[in-house]
Amino acid sequence: MxxxxxxxxxxxxYERGKQKVxxxxxxDLGVAQGDFLALMGPSGSGKTTLLNLIGGLDSxxxxxxxxxxxxxxxxxxxxxxxxxxxxxxxxxxxxxxxPMLSAQRNVELPLLLTKLSGAERRKRAAIALAxxxxxxxSSHKPTELSGxxxxxxxxxxxxxxxxxxxxxxxxxxxxxxxSAEDVLALLRALNRDHGKTIVMVTHDPKAAEYxxxxxxxxxxxxxxxxxx
Length: 228
Hints:
By secondary structure, this protein is of the alpha/beta class. The chain has helices at about 45-55, 75-85, 105-110, 120-130, 145-160, 175-195, 205-210; strands spanning about 5-15, 20-30, 35-40, 60-65, 70, 90, 165-170, 195-200, 215-220, 220-225. The chain contains seven helices and ten strands.
C-alpha cells in the first residue's frame, strides 16, 4: 500500500526551565494508506506526543513528517490549521462536545470553517450521524446521550469533513466494555469499508486487537512493531 504518513528521524524535546527533556528519540515510521495502527506503551513513553505530531497539533524538534506527500513539520501556524481542518479528524478520550449544542450542531462545528451553506452543513452532519448509527439522536444534547453515544457523535464530527486520516487518543478510555467494543467496531468499519487511515493511542490490548498493526514505544523509542 502507498505510504500516507512518513516520519523520518523525528525527535521531540520539551524545555522545562533550564532542563531539556527529550520525549521522542529519532523515530522512523511509515504508515500505509488505509492502515489501522495502534500505538501502545507505558505512561510517558511518548505515544500521545507522536500522535499529536502526526495530527499536526505539535511540531517536532528535529526530523521530518509528511502526510499524503505534504511536509507538515515546516508549515506555519495558519497553513497547518487549514491542513488539519481538511485532512485530519480527531477523536479524544473525553469527547470534547459542546454541552449546549445538539448532536447535529456538534457535528457541524468543523464545517463552520468552510464556505458551505447552512443547508449543506446540515446535510453532511446528518449523513455522518447516520453513518455512526445516531440518525435518531440528532436533536439530543450530550447530557441526553450515553458515553458511548457521545463518543460516536465525536467520531461523526471527526469524519464530517471526509478527512484522509483519523487520529484517536484513548477513544475508549472512558467507556464501559460494551460501549468500547461498539466504538472500536465502528472505527474498524470506517477503516475497512470507507478507507480511513487510523492511528490510535490505547493502553488496552483488547482495543489494539481491532487494529491491523500495533506499534510499541518505550521511553520515546520504537521498540516493537508487529501484526495484530
